[in-house]
Amino acid sequence: MDLHIPENYLSPSTCAVLGAAMVPVWYMAVQKVKEEIPREKLALLGVAAAFSFLGMMFNIPLPGGTTGHAVGGTLIAIIFGPYAACLSVSVALFIQAFFFGDGGLLAFGANCFNMAFALPFAGYFVYKSLQNRLGNTVAAAIGAYVGINLAAFLAAVEFGIQPLFFTDGAGNALYCPYPLSISVPAMMIGHLTLFGLAEVVFTVAVLAYLRQTAPTLFEDEAGGSIKGAYVLAAVLIVFTPLGLLAEGTAWGEWAPEELADQKFLGHALGYTPAGMENGFAFDSLFPDYTVAGLPESFGYILSAVIGVALLVAAFKVFAALCPAAVSREP
Question: Is 12-320 CATH 1.10.1760.20?
Fold first, then answer.
């Protein structure tokens, strides 16, 4: 039930369509961020992206052996706006895929469509629609819940259409073998319950903390201390090994050789989809957030440090390359 779609679960053509759909979104996101966020605050998007990156490392177990996690897209959208959230989560997803093998590189566009586009925009729209009537906290909670469930539904549809369109001569699926009747409930049950609640708690708790300790994040102008944001990131890094306590493999993230024994069709699948078995392969530097020679928990912490450092550095570079970004004048 993890929202990170792995390599070769979607056909190359599906990945290409969703990747192409994201190109104008990314372009618009860059333009909007440059126009709407003061240059002095652009680097802070790296801190926001770090919260999403770290939130996705905390895997939560669900009875039955599967796992999931929060994303934090609505959280970033509430602080910086949905376009900034799109950019932040996209960069976080790229770093996860490229350096840690969490989500496929070919599926990068699909993962961004679900988690960096649909999730924060839907969550932000709901939040703004309800903010005046229900208050910031309740509106944020509902927005976060709607956003992550929309992302889960889209991923379920992307999984479920694969056996409809991509099969071999014998009728066997080439990629994800489970139709919509299986993929939709498999993805949605966990997200409508525990994982949706995790997104709500993560969003509301981090927002409440940051409003108290780093209120400058919510202001139009740059300035003021954001020490509290860095403290929270450090605390999350230290506790990331808690994500290792969730045993089992998330639904839709099995290794190709494991699929033959899965019984979601009422019986063992009995074969490995050819497109998955012979598909694109990429060896990340730190697969599954492990570091060779280090105990798993220390590797997880070091991976978190590396990921956060890369995100902060990436957005500092972005800020330096954006001299046209305007500072809002009173």
Answer: yes
